[in-house]
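User: My instructor asked us to take a sequence, write out its structure as tokens, and then describe one feature of it. I'm not sure where to start. Here is the sequence I was given:
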Amino acid sequence: MGDDRADMEAAQASGDREDVLDSWNLPDPTPVADREVGVERVRSAIETSVHSIEADGLAVAFSGGIDSAIIAALIDAPLYVTGFPDSHDVEAARSAAAAMDRDVTVVTLDHDALVAAIPRVVEATGRRNAMDVSIALPLLLTAERVATDGYDRLAVGQGADELFGGYAKVAKAPNDPRVDAETVAGARREVLDSVPQQLERDVSAIRSAGVDPVAPYLDNGVIEAALALPGNALVTEDGTRKWALRKASTDWVPAAVATREKKAMQYGSLVSREIDRLARQAGFKRRMDDHVGQYIDSLCDSPPSEGPKSADDS
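Assistant: Let's start with the prediction itself. The structure tokens for your sequence are:
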């Protein structure tokens, strides 16, 4: 990945270890020929990483997917999910928590909450594009609720999709135009290039609430174990993504949770859909160039000098 660096003091599961993102130069381990051996290494690395986390003052961002379910299963900390009442994430978190005999606190969203949070997200992250705002917004609101409830750290599943083959474009390599790699393993390596930039956004959103993020999957041991996996341990012939991670979790989480597919946060929470709805209600129609981005600008203290511009006007 070159010499890209990102600041995330609390990214490691343990604060007394060197932050992997202080020197984001990925290792190049020898690939494991036997994917079952690779799974055992992943299982051991994740267990070591999560068990090293101090539970006191910690909460878990819990979407009901495999990434957060593993963290929830390995450490006794309260679970939080943010989303609209009828969202996939809220339903998945509730059903997964029930299957794991756990409780989950739901941070319920509505349009007023989105409108109030958007300027805070922009201020915290320095980003105004629709995708970044839609991703960072539920993180910020989760962190704010966690802080209100007396916790000062939030465990997140960041890095799991990138490391273990969670993206469709990785699964479809080399036939997906979004990646240049000729293999699944190569495409996985390619998407890892986005991690520092994503974490800059996510960390800024969480820390703006006075909460420190903890990312167990970005532990050095987990990264090395994941990068040694062969392509068929990332995505199977039948198209199952994150196979090794799901296989590694079998001792920790119920099968129904381990095999569940999950939507990306901005879609699973319905934040992206509802910001788009708000934009259109405010007069920023889809025919306009970047209509959601223009709406976000309109809610912030320093909107662009020009008003909404339709693509038809150019």
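For the description part of your assignment, you could build on this observation: The first helix runs from residue 35 to 51. Try explaining in your own words what that tells you about the chain.
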